Amino acid sequence: MKKRLPLYLCLGSMLLSSPQMTFAQSNMPETPTDVQAAPQDAAKSPSGLASKVIAKGSGSEHPSAADTVTVHYSGWTTDGKLFDSSVKRGEPTSFPLNGVIKGWTEGVQLMVEGEKRRFWIPAGLAYGENPGGGRPGGMLVFDIELISIKKAPKPPELTAPADAEKTSSGVSIKVVTKGTGEKSPKPEDTVSVNLSLWSPEGELLQSTEQQGGPANVPLDKFRIGGLSEAIRTMVTGEKKLAWIPAKVAFGESLPPGAPAGGMVVEVELLSFKEGVPAPSAPSDVASAPADAQKTASGLTSKLLSKGTGKDHPKASDTVTVHYSGWTTDGKLFDSSVTRGEPTSFGLNQVIKGWTEGVQLMVKGEKRRFWIPANLAYGENPGGGAPGGTLVFDIELLEIQK
């Protein structure tokens, strides 16, 4: 679950500058005179990380790897080339400390708030010697100023207590804070939640608090099995702990990096938006009927209701649609209808069956498609995508040239 993110490539998605802070640093940072190698008086750790305090801090606490820090920084290669700088941009950056290169995770834990320190980070603690993808290779030199520390949520009880309620799937649930609402969300609803996820050993895996705010997710789209089940037992304002076994969370095949012992989740239901109940699977979902039209590619379709338009979209157009999709065993895997919001996209940016099929339609038309695997995601696509022949009901709402 934990992924080390290339620091300077990922700051755009991780940028959480504080509105309370204003910074005048917008000039080009000066290249350090000792950029080529750490000086003799630099401290060196067993990992090979070298550092030197440039300015003492005013704080007394050090961040832990799970904490979120706000920093200003500049980074150079040893030939003095500046490759990234929040100082130059004039905006500090916030991120979970265990989500960046090893040299940063180790090094920033040595610091206190207000401190400024220079690091010489060997390739093995950065991106390697020849990382590719535009990332700098070899030893890297960073000047880092630690502005603030936001402590990570503390791990809860890591083992389900005896008084926890157990669901039919094996998820154990316990109320932490009672809610004020009266209704519980349904599978088709979209929920706004605060979430923190830990491994059974107490390692923080993910937290919306670290990511800048609540998650707003259709309840049937949570990838962690058992989580939506737990949320469906809640009311607005309620906070619960859920202990989810690995097989319930991830299925029989454990994803790389996922905790083998399952996970512990703290979830707070802030609000939910009611969706539309899931549409029933078509009676002909298993196979196309005899009166369906078939194209040379193998795409099969049947008109469900005529449209009011005359023009057909081109592959280069953007279309707005409502849709629902099933596997041939009748399982609904996606639906804009249940979310209550149509979807817009470039017609040449979706699966081949959609690109070809929607061009057969006019505005206002509703059509059912049986899309073979080679025009969809393949037989065994992995990554949560549905395999084999897929069946879609599509209503074409708008065409934008």
Give an overview in words.
By secondary structure, the protein is mainly β. The chain has 3 domains: about 5-150, Roll (Chitinase A, domain 3), CATH 3.10.50; about 165-275, Chitinase A, domain 3 (Roll); about 295-400, Chitinase A, domain 3 (Roll). The protein has helices at about 5-15, 85-90, 100-110, 225-230, 245-250, 335-340, 350-360; strands at about 45, 50-55, 70-75, 80-85, 95, 115-120, 140-150, 165, 170-175, 190-200, 205, 215-220, 240-245, 265-275, 295, 300-305, 320-325, 330-335, 345, 365-370, 390-400. The strands form 3 sheets. Strands 1, 2, 3, 4, 5, 6 and 7 form a 7-stranded antiparallel β-sheet that branches. Strands 8, 9, 10, 11, 12, 13 and 14 form a 7-stranded antiparallel β-sheet that branches. Strand 1 and strand 2 form a beta hairpin.
Order of SSEs: HEEEEHEHEEEEEEEHEHEEEEEHEHEE
Global morphology:
globular
The Cα radius of gyration reads 26 Å
Number of strands: 21
Taken as a percent bin, the fraction of beta residues is 25-35%
Please give the domain count: 3
What oligomerization state is this entry in?
A: single chain
CATH topology of the largest domain: Chitinase A, domain 3
Reconstruct the topology from this structure:
Layout: H1 7-14, E1 43-44, E2 50-55, E3 68-77, E4 82-85, H2 86-89, E5 93-96, H3 102-108, E6 116-121, E7 140-150, E8 165-166, E9 172-177, E10 190-198, E11 204-207, E12 215-218, H4 227-231, E13 239-244, H5 246-250, E14 263-273, E15 293-294, E16 300-305, E17 318-327, E18 332-335, H6 336-339, E19 343-346, H7 352-358, E20 366-371, E21 390-400
Antiparallel strand pairs: 1-2, 2-6, 3-4, 3-5, 3-7, 6-7, 8-9, 9-13, 10-11, 10-12, 10-14, 13-14, 15-16, 16-20, 17-18, 17-19, 17-21, 20-21
